[in-house]
């Protein structure tokens, strides 16, 4: 019901751009009380949202604009482009759930073509566990372990994205080299 992303500059720690859309549920259009309580998303917000295929199209347009403006390449783009003056980019998620399970199967089920750039990512939870040698108690717990307060509402997609970026930046500052942990690309 929500599709957020933030662009983190890993040289400065600044969030340089954000994308956010509510996605209209097509098969079960009414949100459950559990979903509303967990995410803070209201029924009218998803009713004013867009179907998933439109959201993915809008997201791709946003990504393509950023790629041109900031000279960014995704791993799936490398064989087709020159590397001069470009910066590599990939997605960072808290667990494999969003890209590896939820979006993957939703696109398959609806016979939507998932953009190739969403087939490769870094699972920050797994990376955190290996780098700090401890099991985090959720995104908020991982931030708290490092003395960072969670900003916003837990399970709000955009707030979770911003906080994941803050955690990734802290890990980079602590010496962690972020590497792809999952890829559906051949």
From TrEMBL:
<dbReference type="InterPro" id="IPR047201">
    <property type="entry name" value="ERI-1_3'hExo-like"/>
</dbReference>
<keyword id="KW-0378">Hydrolase</keyword>
<dbReference type="Pfam" id="PF00929">
    <property type="entry name" value="RNase_T"/>
</dbReference>
<dbReference type="GO" id="GO:0000175">
    <property type="term" value="F:3'-5'-RNA exonuclease activity"/>
</dbReference>
<dbReference type="InterPro" id="IPR013520">
    <property type="entry name" value="Ribonucl_H"/>
</dbReference>
<protein>
    <submittedName>
        <fullName>ERI1 exoribonuclease 2</fullName>
    </submittedName>
</protein>
<dbReference type="GO" id="GO:0003676">
    <property type="term" value="F:nucleic acid binding"/>
</dbReference>
<keyword id="KW-0269">Exonuclease</keyword>
<feature type="domain" description="Exonuclease">
    <location>
        <begin position="1"/>
        <end position="177"/>
    </location>
</feature>
<keyword id="KW-0540">Nuclease</keyword>
<dbReference type="InterPro" id="IPR036397">
    <property type="entry name" value="RNaseH_sf"/>
</dbReference>
<dbReference type="InterPro" id="IPR012337">
    <property type="entry name" value="RNaseH-like_sf"/>
</dbReference>
<dbReference type="InterPro" id="IPR051274">
    <property type="entry name" value="3-5_Exoribonuclease"/>
</dbReference>
């Amino acid at each position: 019901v929500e599709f957020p992303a933030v662009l983190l500059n890993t040289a400065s720690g600044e969030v340089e751009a954000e994308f956010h859309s509510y996605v209209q549920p097509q098969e079960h259009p009414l949100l459950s009380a559990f979903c509303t309580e967990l995410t803070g998303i209201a029924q009218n917000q998803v009713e004013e949202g867009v179907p998933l295929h439109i959201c993915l199209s809008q997201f791709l347009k946003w990504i393509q604009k950023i790629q041109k403006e900031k000279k960014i390449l995704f791993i799936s783009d490398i064989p087709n482009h020159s590397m001069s003056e470009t910066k590599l980019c990939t997605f960072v998620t808290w667990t494999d759930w969003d890209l590896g399970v939820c979006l993957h199967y939703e696109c398959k089920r609806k016979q939507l073509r998932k953009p190739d750039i969403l087939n490769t990512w870094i699972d920050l939870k797994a990376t955190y566990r290996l780098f700090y040698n401890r099991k985090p108690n959720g995104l908020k717990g991982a931030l708290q372990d490092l003395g960072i307060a969670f900003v916003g509402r837990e399970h709000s997609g955009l707030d979770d994205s911003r906080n994941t970026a803050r955690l990734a930046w802290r890990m980079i500052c602590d010496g962690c080299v972020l590497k792809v942990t999952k890829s559906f690309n051949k």
